[in-house]
Amino acid sequence: MIDRRTVLRGTAALLLAALDGGRSLRVACAQAASGRIIVNLMLIGGADLRQLFVPHPDAQPEYAAAFWKARARMTGQRDDIATYRALFSAQYTAVAMGATAFGVHNGAGWLISRLRDGGAAIVANVRTGDPHASEYDYDRDGWGGRLAYALSEANVVSVSPSPSVFAQGPIANNRNAQAIQAPEPRQFALDETTAGPFGGLVASTLTDYYAARQLDAALLPANSPFHRILGHERRLRALGRELNASLARVVPQRPEPLRLLYQGPSGIGLADTAFGLQCAALFDCIVAGEALKMRVGYMEHGNWDTHVNQPPRMATNIADVFGAGKGLATLTQELARFGAARDVVFVITSDFGRQIVANTQGGTDHGSGSYSIVIGDAVRGAIFGEMFPVREITGAPGARPLDTFGAEIVGLTSFERVLGAVCDWVAAGSGDVVFPERSASPLEPGVDLATMLT
Q: Do 281 and 416 fall into the same domain?
């Protein structure tokens, strides 16, 4: 079994030492295209995306037969191709992209439409993360923080329930200098309207306290650590007021479709209401314009780390994220309604992959390869890499055949390649700055990710 991976690798610290304290990191990167925003959606827990994308029983009959023999025990059904064909017909929608036909889970109605209209790309055989990175090592940078630093006047805005290493920058003693944690932008400001039974009183008292301390600041020694605290409070209060003013001007009330994602009754709202709130929060942050100087965003969907009776859980997760009228569908619909969708691209990744062969408990165990999905109006819809390679059947060098435990997706394209291409869309040349080892990292033969985004 492969331990938890992370795609947030701290490679920039060593680079900075060789680049004059980090100053060259910024000048090496071209000016960011005005208004472009990249949002990383992390599927936490190793999403088994071979339950989202499956082989077509007619287009890939040999692969489909081997795939189903490896997976049938997950559902308790017979492992013959006729059973698979019936399951495919009932639970999957056939999609054709280029010369490849495959099945997409019916719960992913919005993703199916985006694949068909050319607004989504699939990168197959992606190597997921650094096997040597510890999930408990928080004193490091993430690629979102490195990109914001490379863009200079830009911030990473995270709407996840808790801060992520993703947003941390490369300056060791100030990693959050360009990171904003905004899980609820409409309760972000430090003012007298703070919610809660005693919120107004407490907030008013703190406002008066800090106002008095700001007047006393001139009396503090120049090297007093309280200057930093007072400066932070002053900037945070100003930012909150600017954000409130921007939201009040553009969208005083959060659109009802977004509110229903986390407040709606079962069947209308999401099963994961925390993700629903993130969709609403990200909408607020994007339409707030330049108040947050947002060029990089982060959100996450949990609940993917399961090894037992997976199909029902995966169906729920897939619908939450990719379903028609659900998370990303509603978010992008509302962004488009406010004219803010054109320059937003979502890159969807997971912290590790899954094996192809089912275990004996109706699930799959950890693996190292997976898919990445890139969605947005700027995306040139295509498949990059071979979705269902013959080597997974035959056990060609580097792969275990599907009739053996441990068989998994072989990672032929590094995550640095995928994410670096997305960075280049935000600012030409930034991919090599954010991922300095990108050019030496693996890339599946015949794949050209430079064509993925306009």
A: yes
Q: Which domain holds residue 217?
A: 187-250
Report the alpha-carbon distance of residue 381 to residue 374 in Å, rounded.
9
Overall average pLDDT of the 116-135 stretch: 83
- Percentage of residues in the chain having pLDDT higher than 70: 89
Q: What's the structural domain count of the chain? A: 2
Closest CA to 147 of 409, 360, 412, 435: 435
Q: What is the per-residue burial (b if ≥16 Cβ within 10 Å, else e) of 14-46?
A: ebbeebeebeebeeebeebeeebbbbbbbbbbb
With bands split at pLDDT 50, 70 and 90, how would you rate the model's confidence at 130? low
User: Can you tell me which residue has the tokens 């028609």?
Assistant: 324
Are residue 326 and residue 428 in the same domain, yes or no? Answer: yes
pLDDT, tens digit, for every residue of 281-295?
Answer: 999 999 998 899 999
The domain boundary, picked from 250, 281, 302, lies at 250
Indicate if 222 and 283 belong to the same structural domain: no
pLDDT of res. 134 = 62
pLDDT of 396 reads: 84
The residue ranking higher by pLDDT, 250 or 198, is: 250
Choose between 30 and 307: higher pLDDT: 307
Do residues 193 and 169 both lie within one domain?
no
Q: Are 180 and 243 spatial neighbours (Cβ–Cβ below 8 Å)?
A: no
Determine, yes or no, domain membership for 432.
yes
What SS3 class is residue 313? helix
Question: Tell me, what's the pLDDT at 228?
Answer: 84
Q: How far apart are CA 14 and CA 10, in angstroms?
A: 9
Q: Which of 294, 273, 83, 351 is nearest to 179 (CA)?
A: 294
Extract the tokens encoding 4.
């938890």
The percentage of the chain sitting over the pLDDT mark of 90, rounded to a whole number, equals 73
Tell me the C-alpha to C-alpha distance, in Å, between residue 115 and each of 89, 344, 383: 19, 17, 10
Overall residue count recorded for the chain in this entry:
454
Same domain, 367 and 445: yes
65 assigned to some structural domain: no
The first and second tokens of residue 318, run together, are 């897939």
The continuous run of DSSP H or E covering 39 comes out as: strand 37-43
Do both 274 and 359 map to the same domain? yes
Tell me if 232 is assigned to some domain: yes
CB atoms inside a 10 Å sphere around CB 114: 24
The reply to whether 208 and 357 lie within a common domain is no
Provide the 3-class DSSP secondary structure of residue 149: helix
Report the DSSP beta bridge partners of residue 413.
126
